[in-house]
């Protein structure tokens, strides 16, 4: 199996040089033409290569789409990291960066807290999608039909008494997040952990990632953490501006400011 994968991957650099026919591919791989054809057909089925009318093969559009998606996520992480590190240095708490991919919200960067009590989270690990602040920010930006479809197919685990109970409550929370431009998780996933986050926007104002600051309440209270919201939003706006290559207009806040006692209720 590893040899098959190795051969299939070896086709890509060849086609990057330009279209090639079956005989050229077989010759480069030093395999029989029937073996090369099986590999090319499989890659064609996945859109990785494309068979032209002249029977030559070239790299397929799916490969470019995957590369573009990977580059976008890599770019936002590279751009965001210095800003996240600066925020972490200023407040000392854990800072996360997350993206939405294929029905999951994943951490793609993390700067650890300077305090001994730390959060259990890892880069590449999915977040608790129904309660996490970063997840709310990413899903709130989806078009309404997609938002509703996602909400309807999610499960709603009762991590704590403050966890989101059902799809209706989740959609209401997403509507609030969409309007105010920031999100919280105050004990929704773990009773002792609070979190506040803001969106990172790309072209045309669409949310491409979300960042958050999290801390256990033995280190800082929810009220104290929420006081960092203006700085969190400024950091997200700075990342957004650098990501699109030009200043962007601040997103509307709805004229509201966080009220810890009100927001501490279940979303």
UniProtKB/TrEMBL annotation:
Pfam families: HTH_IclR, IclR_C
HTH iclR-type domain mapped to chain residues: 2-61
Origin: domain of life: Bacteria
Basic residues bias (residue ranges): 256-267
Disordered: annotated segments: 247-267
Keywords assigned: DNA-binding, Transcription, Transcription regulation
PANTHER family named in the record: HELIX-TURN-HELIX TRANSCRIPTIONAL REGULATOR, ICLR FAMILY (PTHR30136), HTH-TYPE TRANSCRIPTIONAL REPRESSOR ALLR (PTHR30136:SF24)
Protein's recorded name: IclR family transcriptional regulator
Organism: Streptomyces tubbatahanensis
